[in-house]
Design a protein that fits this description.
Elements (H helix, E strand, L loop, with lengths): L7 H9 L21 H4 L1 E13 L4 E12 L3 E7 L4 E8 L2 E2 L1 E5 L2 E10 L2 E11 L12 E6 L5 E6 L23 E8 L3 E3 L3 E8 L2 E8 L11 E3 L1 E9 L5 E9 L6 H19 L9 E5 L11 E3 L6 E3 L2 E3 L1 H8 L8 E2 L6 H34 L14 H5 L6 H14 L1 H13 L8 E2 L1 H12 L4 H9 L4 E9 L2 E6 L6 E7 L2 E7 L4 E4 L5 E2 L7 E6 L1
Parallel strand pairs: 1-11, 17-18, 18-19, 22-23, 24-30
Antiparallel strand pairs: 1-2, 2-8, 3-7, 4-5, 4-8, 6-7, 9-10, 11-14, 12-15, 13-14, 16-17, 20-21, 24-25, 25-28, 26-27, 26-29
Helix pairs in contact: 3-4, 3-5, 4-5, 5-7, 7-8, 8-9
């Protein structure tokens, strides 16, 4: 039997001597992802079973998590992530108790005999107080509060920190449980638990209720969570674009039940818009879930959270909720099409934000689309490139980057560059082709290669310029004679189509390193409709 050593024992001695961080329940330094540990690279997560008793009064949980893993090679060490706040009482692998070390928010499980290649099941028994969210959902953990009627209300958020805030997992975006998750969450029987997938059963005993939630789809570990509240369940069936019937299920606070029908109506309308551009709702075998929470919404798979504010803006003649729509777009962009690495987070956030622009077009026409795209452009800060490398943590990518609005504006520019007849079908292909969805993951290079192939153009220079730098297109306009002007593309990296407004109207040209000569009785305007991020210098 070949054992994968992977610097294990020196690593163990180093970890044993570390002071356990998190003794004050502070997880602000935690960030999901980054460089994949070689020990975990050997581990393919297949399934999680999470069984927990939630004691709301003590702000604690107790129970176990089972992790089904496929080992690519035999190994003497398994490595899971779990914050230090928990007391781990025992760990068994395939039913046999194993020695372990719990330090530095990691569970290091070692066997002198080694673990054979193939499937292993790790059961971790643990209890304790999970971290409390300071600024959810951006700084994660548990939010334990009360609704307006004084009932307990619990929400979990952990995109930044990963699922390790409350269950042992492999905390890296490049691995999801291919066979899904089973969750058994036990709470007081006066409360309701909402979770991912489909509710299998509610078992009541001794004033408690255990909710069994199950999803058979792959799912990011930051979406493996539950919410607890005094919920009413309001449901209405929806027929997808492919004629599958899926329920829209809203876990709404009892005190807000009067708002449920309206929100479900908006949700159905939003589904039709998203299916038009990105294909059928991805989780039609389960549910279109919505859950009211006391913080800003999140894209939790089949159970996106909603900030519990039933406020709408008017787009055209219709009601619209930006919070509700953006998180829902993530069912396609994040949950179905998933970044292999947080370095490529713009894919889920930028395209998800661009989906809002498409919705504005459908609801309010070209003027509404132009207005939101202009707002996205004005909000760009240019502090860091959208793609700053590879194998980055969530913090390294998220902080001070423009992955939302610059990502959206990039898609707007790409659309102009290659035209609607190529852009829109290719965007839908990215959202529907099995090569990019569900069990598979994507990077910026994958997106670029897809659009390059579809357009017949080498778009890598375009992607690199806008993804990997904070630069903008640099144009200069110089009057060179009577009603004659020269337009220069000063940082030219490829030929680009461009609109130039002259005294004759809008003219479309292709500009490269040699620039353009323009005749006009008025000074030409470059890209007046705003398809590119640019600066323009008028030369004397």
């Amino acid at each position: 039997m070949r054992i994968v050593k992977s610097f294990v024992f020196s690593f163990l001695f180093m970890v044993v001597n570390l002071v356990a961080i998190g003794q004050n329940r502070d997880i602000s330094n935690l960030s999901s992802g980054g460089k994949l540990n070689p020990i975990q690279a050997n581990m393919d997560i297949r399934h999680y079973t999470i069984s927990l008793d939630v004691d709301i009064s003590k702000e604690s949980i107790r129970g176990f998590t089972e992790v089904d893993i496929l080992l690519a090679n035999a190994a003497d060490t398994l490595l899971l992530d779990l914050v230090n706040f928990f007391d781990v009482s025992s760990i068994a692998v395939n039913g046999t108790n194993q020695k372990f070390i719990h330090r530095d928010n990691k569970l290091i499980i070692v066997s002198e005999k080694g673990f054979q290649k193939g499937k292993v099941t790790v059961r971790v028994n643990y209890s304790g107080q999970p971290p409390v969210a300071v600024k959810p959902p951006w700084t994660g953990g548990f939010t334990l509060t009360k609704d307006r009627s004084g009932n307990p209300w619990v929400a979990i958020n952990c995109q930044k920190e990963g699922g390790r805030v409350y269950f042992p997992c492999k905390d890296h975006p490049s691995d999801e449980p291919n066979e899904g998750v089973d969750m058994y969450i036990n709470v007081p029987d006066t409360l309701v638990v909402s979770g991912p997938g489909l509710l299998q059963k509610v078992t009541k005993r001794k004033r408690t209720a255990t909710y069994h939630w199950k999803t058979q789809y792959t799912i990011s570990n930051y979406c493996i969570l539950f919410n607890i509240g005094k919920y009413s369940v309001v449901q209405k069936d929806f027929t997808t674009i492919n004629n599958n019937v899926v329920p829209i299920v809203f876990y709404v606070l009892e005190e807000d039940k009067m708002h449920a029908d309206k929100l479900i109506e908006v949700k159905a309308r939003d589904t039709r818009i998203l299916e038009k551009y990105f294909g059928e709702y991805p989780w039609y075998k389960e549910k279109i879930g919505i859950c009211a929470v006391p913080n800003s919404g999140m894209e939790h798979q089949t159970n996106i959270t909603f900030q519990n504010k039933f406020e709408y803006t008017r787009i055209g003649e219709q009601d619209y909720s930006a919070n509700l729509f953006h998180e829902y777009a993530h069912e396609w962009w994040a949950n179905k099409v998933t970044n292999k690495d947080w370095a490529h987070m713009w894919i889920q956030e930028g395209i998800g934000t661009y989906a809002e622009a498409l919705a504005h077009y459908d609801l309010g026409g070209q003027a509404a689309y132009d207005k939101i795209i202009s707002a996205h452009r004005r909000s760009i800060r240019y502090k860091k490139p959208m793609v700053g490398g590879e194998e980055l943590s969530e913090d390294e990518t998220y902080a001070f980057t423009d992955i939302y609005t610059k990502g959206s504006f990039f898609m707007h520019s790409l659309r102009f560059l290659i035209g609607d007849e190529i852009f829109l079908p290719t965007l839908k292909k990215l959202a529907t082709d099995p090569a990019y969805t569900y069990d598979n993951f994507v990077t910026t290079n994958d997106v670029e290669a897809l659009f390059s192939k579809a357009s017949g153009k080498d778009l890598k220079p375009f992607f690199d310029f806008f993804m990997k730098t904070t630069d903008v297109l640099d144009f200069s306009v110089k009057e060179t004679g009577y009603q004659q002007y020269t337009v220069k593309f000063n940082n030219c990296f490829m030929q680009l189509p461009i609109q130039i407004t002259t005294s004759n109207g809008i003219e479309k040209h292709v500009i490269g390193k040699d620039g353009l000569k323009i005749q006009s009785s008025t000074p030409p305007q470059i890209d007046a409709n705003g398809y590119y991020l640019k600066k323009i210098t008028m030369l004397p």
